[in-house]
Amino acid sequence: MRLPVLLTLLFALLFAGQAQASERIHQFDAEIQVRTDGDVIVTETITLTAEHYQVSRGIFRDLPRYYLAETGEKFRYGYDVLNVTRNGEQEPYKTLSDGNAFQIRIGDADKLLPKGQQQTYKIRYRVKNQVRYFDDHDELMWNVTGDYWGFPIDASQATIILPQGVQPTFLKGYTGAYGESGSDYTASHNGNVALFSLTKGLKLREGFTIAVGLPKGAIDPPSAADKGAILWQRYAGLGLLLLSVLGVFGFYFFSWQKVGKDAARLPVYPRYHPPKKLSPIAAHYVFFRTLKNNDGLIGTLMDLAVKGFLSLKVEKKKVTLTKTDPPRNTQLPGHERKFYNAILKNSNRSRTLGEGYDADFASALSTMNTSIQKTYGDDYFRWNTGYMAIAIFASVSFFIIAAFLTLNWTVWHFVITGVLVVINLAFFYFLPAQTAKGEKLRSEIAGFRLYLETAEKDVLNAAEVHGDKPPPMSKDRYEALLPFAMALGVEKPWSKYFEKVLPEEARDYDPSWNRGGRLAGATLASFSHSVSSGISSGVSTAAVRPSSGSSSSGGGFSGGGGGGGGGGGW
């Protein structure tokens, strides 16, 4: 019998100790002084016992950062912490902002509170513009305790001190969880002082809210400064976005006037030969103003093949390059020569592209592309990226600041942000500028491309352009210009022209550089297109490093008015 009795006593002592050590607010009192300018000065006196469960070094008081106006708009509360004491002595604190909470964190991280001893904290702070104005009266509604404390509150009392000579017109209170309208309180007033007291304690997540009616005119209406502060919160972000639109547009416009105007456009008429000393990839870059897809590279490989430097075996998704001996004194542009020597060295007379990433080929291609971009860069076409970078940085910076200032996003915020985006996109097109030198070369390339693209039309074949007749078509001419046709994306109409003018030679065409064979019955246009597609597939695989990555899956109510929030210990 003794063992069960002993165990019962031990459990009773354990639960009694836990009950005794549970932390709670013994008393939460608030004194609220209402000033004639509508501000309130709040003094909260909070008494509790630190049991080192939640409260070890101090407490924190969370106050709401924002409130909803009658219009449904969100505005910031204006807090000014005046003083914090513990047991009548100054206590260290700091203020933090976290989400919707303005937190007053009280205590010293290096000091523990005496365990089991009662502590009395007094927090004094000012809040701006807490009086609400109606047609026939004014009103103060204040959430005395807040609804989000980490422990229960045994008792609470609120003392409202109105300006001298002002008496309340009504007193109301609300208790319970947020949104409830309990009436567990008493209220009375003596002159300009109103007193509210709870008649029973508050459980976790319950609060105590009071409302005091004031005679109309007893409190001054919001000042110009107060109205200005509201206007700032309402329109500062929108105004900054609007200024950013004007500023960024102005910057772009004056930059365009300075560096963004294209040289005068030159007429484009068919030309029967490529510009002198211009390679297929260079023609591609100057005409398209970028290295588009793999067309420039395809033109380069085809140029090397046509000139006898290599043979091509094109399959569905890969291509094999084999080094061959070109005719004596055959010349190559410098960037083509370096590229050729890099991909087909003396020790490696064959290279297959399309079986996986090829670092040597990718490096050689990158070197050739960089050479083309430098050779035909700013002297031919100015991208003016520095100006665009400044405008983009300004746009993003303005947007971030505006987003920080904006509490209530409206359709106008989205419209003006959209306008800012459109301005940037528009000047991405308008700000780059063709130089006179670039325009001259590009118009020549455009005329040559026009010939390659439209040569099959009889009207062109019979025409004289500036007194110059098209050269007669032949297998050698077709083959010599095919690299340019591929680089400029017009190999199909160029091949059709060859088929139309010389159908027998086109049908029997079997170039010496081709090691892949030609399907019986296939047209020359389809053959040239399949060669281009096969080369593109192979070089894409060889030149692009495979990416790696990972993913993972996995009327009134309690809580209304100013004040509120909650708190806890730390």
TrEMBL record:
<feature type="domain" description="DUF2207">
    <location>
        <begin position="24"/>
        <end position="195"/>
    </location>
</feature>
<keyword id="KW-0732">Signal</keyword>
<dbReference type="Pfam" id="PF09972">
    <property type="entry name" value="DUF2207"/>
</dbReference>
<dbReference type="Pfam" id="PF20990">
    <property type="entry name" value="DUF2207_C"/>
</dbReference>
<feature type="region of interest" description="Disordered">
    <location>
        <begin position="538"/>
        <end position="570"/>
    </location>
</feature>
<keyword id="KW-0472">Membrane</keyword>
<feature type="transmembrane region" description="Helical">
    <location>
        <begin position="235"/>
        <end position="255"/>
    </location>
</feature>
<feature type="domain" description="Predicted membrane protein YciQ-like C-terminal">
    <location>
        <begin position="270"/>
        <end position="498"/>
    </location>
</feature>
<feature type="transmembrane region" description="Helical">
    <location>
        <begin position="411"/>
        <end position="431"/>
    </location>
</feature>
<keyword id="KW-0812">Transmembrane</keyword>
<keyword id="KW-1133">Transmembrane helix</keyword>
<feature type="transmembrane region" description="Helical">
    <location>
        <begin position="386"/>
        <end position="405"/>
    </location>
</feature>
<protein>
    <submittedName>
        <fullName>DUF2207 domain-containing protein</fullName>
    </submittedName>
</protein>
<dbReference type="InterPro" id="IPR048389">
    <property type="entry name" value="YciQ-like_C"/>
</dbReference>
<feature type="signal peptide">
    <location>
        <begin position="1"/>
        <end position="21"/>
    </location>
</feature>
<feature type="compositionally biased region" description="Gly residues">
    <location>
        <begin position="552"/>
        <end position="570"/>
    </location>
</feature>
<dbReference type="InterPro" id="IPR018702">
    <property type="entry name" value="DUF2207"/>
</dbReference>
